[in-house]
Amino acid sequence: MAWQGIEGHDAVVAQFVAAFARDRVAGSYLFIGPAGIGKSTFAKKLAKSLLCESLQDGLEPCGVCASCVQADAGSHPDIDTVEKPAERATIPLETFIGDPEHRMREGLCWRLLLRPALGGRKVAIILDADYLSAEAANCLLKTLEEPADRAVIILVGTALERQLPTIRSRCQIVRFRPLTADNGAIVRRILQAEAVLATQPIDAATLQACAEACDGSLHRARLLLDPALTAFRNRLFALLAVRPLHGVELARETSALVDAAGKDAPPRRARLKVVLEYAIEFFRTALRHDLTAALPADAATADAIKAWASGIDEPAEEAVEALQHTLNALESIDRNANLTILIDAWTAFLERPSFAQSS
Ligand SMILES: [Zn+2]
Fold it and tell me: Do 32 and 169 reside in the same domain of the chain?
């Protein structure tokens, strides 16, 4: 059976079980792997195990002690989780050492120096480690160099290159692989379990298609199952196929889809990302069509690609430009760009008459 219900990361589980058996738990770990494959969940489960009062063989938490109960409730006083505030581009300094009025009397680094409330240690989980500000990283460095007794700090990031060398060198690096190794079977199983919990059945074909398209990211798989987004894909392709492109209309419909996600930034960003990824899929397919005359099996997409190509003199050049610009827009989302401005700039670029169009 999977360790605490974690699927697809058996090698990492084995690594921790072995380290714990040899009493070789490190003071700081850096979890690295693509977004949405379960690194944060793993960090939380590991914290629960490290703090359990009667840990079983194989690093299995008992599930019933006071520590396990509080860990499950998300209210454990010795599990300290911080992340990038949605409205900020980086994790600010005050997250680690308090605001100017409370320097070193608040913040994660200060809290780690306090005696554990329940058990023998404290566990800090730093999500969004890709977005540590330089000052914050410097403060954290001191804590990593002089760790509190038996404290464990887990940083969760997506790529090693996005971490400062000074942070990297002080952490034990744990690599998480995408879930694709099993050809989507793991993703399918997890989604199935979630659907059962949510009492919303997903038919087998949809589930399989989603498992194959999600690149091993659960986060992405859940988005791909969102009916509002799947419906928008065809609409987007139709809008992109029209020449000249109606930028205002494309911007309006894209904004409406993003707005429907509510006021919170993360789901809004996630939705826009999926839209841009659909557009990337469109331009890639268009490029392939121009170079090899190949068309996708899906008739609606094939028609949209043919319509798009028939209105342009240099389809390959146009597809590459559009692709590049859409990839840049996608990257800007992660840099906390204003979404309205980003949508306007993206659609205005696609609308521009820079290439000679067939008249
Ligand atoms: Zn326990």
Answer: yes
Beta strands in the chain (DSSP E): 28-32, 79-82, 123-126, 152-157, 172-175
Q: Does one domain contain both 263 and 164? A: no
Ligand 1 geometric centre to CA of 297 (Å): 53
Centroid of ligand 1 to alpha carbon of 71 (angstroms): 9
How far is Cα 271 from Cα 258, in angstroms, rounded to an integer? Answer: 6
| Closest C-alpha to 60, from 92, 99, 21 | 21
Gap from CA of 172 to ligand 1 centroid (Å): 25
Give yes or no: residues 270 and 318 share one domain. yes
Domain count along the chain: 3
If you measure from the C-alpha of residue 69 to the centroid of ligand 1, how many angstroms do you get, rounded to a whole number? 7
Same domain for 37 and 104, yes or no, is yes
Q: pTM of the entire structure?
A: 0.67
Task: Output the CA 8–ligand 1 centroid distance in Å.
Answer: 24
CA of 147 to the centre of ligand 1 (A): 24
Distance, CA 112 to ligand 1 centroid (Å)?
21
Please say whether the beta carbons of 31 and 157 come within 8 A: yes
Do both 59 and 138 map to the same domain?
yes
> Please, which pLDDT band fits residue 356 given cuts at 50, 70 and 90?
very low
CATH of the domain at 64: 3.40.50.300
Whole-number Å distance, alpha carbon 51 to ligand 1 midpoint, is 7
Distance 18 CA to ligand 1 centre (A): 19
Of 345, 304, 340, 353, the closest CA to residue 326 belongs to 345
What pLDDT does residue 1 have?
62
User: Do 123 and 27 share a structural domain?
Assistant: yes
pLDDT, one tens digit per residue, over 222-257 is 777 787 888 899 899 999 999 888 999 999 999 999
Q: How far is the CA of 48 from the centre of ligand 1 (A)?
A: 8
Which tens digit of pLDDT belongs to each residue from 260-296?
988 888 788 888 998 999 999 899 999 999 888 888 8
The domain of 186 spans 182-216
pLDDT recorded at residue 197: 60
Q: What are phi and psi of 171, to 5 degrees?
A: -115, 150
Q: Are 192 and 143 found together in one domain?
A: no
Residues 111 and 34 in one domain: yes
Q: Rounded to the nearest whole angstrom, what is the distance from the C-alpha of residue 67 to the centroid of ligand 1?
A: 6
